[in-house]
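Lab notebook page, bench 4
Experiment: in silico fold of construct C2
Operator: M.H.
Input chain length: 324 residues
Purpose: comparison with the prior construct
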Amino acid sequence: MKNINEMRNQTVVTEFIFLQFSNHPEEQGLFFLIFLIVYMVTLLGNFLILMAIRINPVLHTPMYYFLSNLSFLDICYTSTTLPIMLVNFFREKKTITYEGCLSQIFFLVTFAGSECVLLAAMAYDRFIAICHPLRYPVLMSNRICAYLTAGSWLCGLVNSLAHIVLTATLTLCGPNQISHFLCDIPLLMKLSCSDTSVNEVALYVSSATIGLCPCLFTAVSYMLIISAILKIQSAQGRQKAFSTCASHLTVVVIYYGTINFNYDRPSLGYSLDVDILASVLFCIITPMLNPIIYSLRNKEVKVALRKLCEGCILPNDSHVKINS
């Protein structure tokens, strides 16, 4: 009865206060500049990938179709958190409304879940291309690619809707301070004064279905891919086969490595700096690295980007030649 009375006497939370980088108040300007540059690089890199794939017919293949969706996801994902964080650097009281917090969680969980499944679909594409090359046009037709992409978005959306419904049922009586720069489900569960057992079960189920299963599928796919590559007799053939999946493998290792560091590290020795660093790596740095990795390690993407840049300059060059 005492707990019930305490809950009734407390004020219901209508907004949250972010304590982002509160341990380093004197370095707010430096942090703003760094994250602004990261955001600009992320947007520019992913937009260039999208444009290069769009205008270059050579890249109209399933692998680059998935890559364009990955770039779009990265743009959406980083735009869910970084603009709000950048604005808060100039605000003395860094707040977000309750509805805004739920909206941020919804989009974060949707994009993160969709990317997990999409990376597994990209691994399946590489598996078919290397292990079953003769059947590749049939097994990876335009319709199947569209189904796999739509399925990844649907998985992320359904997972996010389930979490948002459960999170919205939590009773938040205060305090309203979030020791972070974003809203996340575990953070709100810590602020809840109601039973969170159902929410915890939902998080475990989600981690297994949306997180662990795609990760295991990707790992098995690459075990089979590497096994098939090692059976190729010529060194040039092995190098060519591995080069087609090296970029995706690098992205997968970074993505699942950062997501595990963010959510599955031990709570012992917890600090605000480590917690924020983990989220920065997962939510901000990874979307910036993806287009860089594909640009550096993929010859076809580099050629397409070079043509894209030349296409922007060519009209002026041709005009000069005509006049001369």
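Observations: The chain has one domain: 11-323. Residues 1-9, 316-324 have pLDDT under 50 and may be disordered.
Next step: discuss at group meeting.
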